[in-house]
Amino acid sequence: MYFVGYRKVNRVFPVFLGFLRAEVGRSVQLSVIEIVGIALLKVFAELDAGFERPRQELESRSDYPGAWSVAEHLEHVVLANHFLLLTIGKGCRKALKRAAVEPIPEAGSDLTPLAAIASPGVFDWQPPAHMLPGGRRPLEELREELRGERDMCLRHLAEMPAGEGRLCRIGMSVNRLGKLDMYQWLYFLAQHARFHLNFIERNRRGQM
């Protein structure tokens, strides 16, 4: 169910959410999983569409020091996803292992603190050097990696349908978010990508 074309994304939503409902019913936690799942699918679909922009648009950049091109924003998101998923994968495995012997915490996952992550200008954060775009990788290669990252995110989410993701919390330094559970980490990944899509759009409108 995960390896699908982006043009079929509207058909993926009900399939993905139907799978979750079959697993856990209409519980409160389902709403968080739905929100995270929809956020991931939508943002990855929009990122993928970004690779179809004309070459001139992909390579254009705003007229201010240090401005990134659209292609560089896309490359950065792919790089950031890679490193975020290393942590998310480790945390999900730990959460599932704990779920075999520990009860699921009753408290839900609060996604509210992550709202600001998608908004340019709300907080200041400089990406580390290993997440900076280099402009040396072919765009098609980056696009394929992005699609693999989407599948990995959805796989992690589907493997934790009953709140298991709350059994592991890992610290997040960005915007002083503190410890986040695995649903929150996956939502952070989606929100970070959304930040760059919003940034690109603001540049396009000349609002930067």
The low-pLDDT segments are: 1-13, 26-30
The major β-sheet equals: 2 strands, antiparallel
Give the beta-strand count. 2
Query: Averaged pLDDT, please?
Result: 86
List keywords for this structure.
single chain; 208 residues; mainly alpha; Four Helix Bundle (Hemerythrin (Met), subunit A); 56% helix; 4% strand; elongated; disordered N terminus
Topology of helices and strands:
Elements: H1 9-24, H2 28-50, H3 55-59, H4 70-99, H5 139-158, E1 169-172, E2 178-181, H6 182-204
Overview in brief:
The chain has 208 residues and is mostly helical.
Molecular structure report:
- This protein is mainly alpha-helical and 208 residues long.
- It has a single domain (6-204), classed as Four Helix Bundle (Hemerythrin (Met), subunit A).
- 56% of the residues lie in helices and 4% in strands.
- The chain contains 6 helices and 2 strands; from the N terminus they run αααααββα.
- The chain has helices spanning 9-24, 28-50, 55-59, 70-99, 139-158, 182-204, and strands at residues 169-172, 178-181.
- It has a two-stranded antiparallel sheet.
- Helix 2 runs parallel beside helix 6 (182-204), helix 4 packs parallel to helix 5 (139-158) and helix 4 (70-99) runs antiparallel to helix 6.
- The longest helix has 30 residues, at 70-99.
- It is elongated, with a radius of gyration of 17 Å.
- The N and C termini lie far apart (39 Å).
- Residues 1-13 and 26-30 have low confidence and may be disordered.
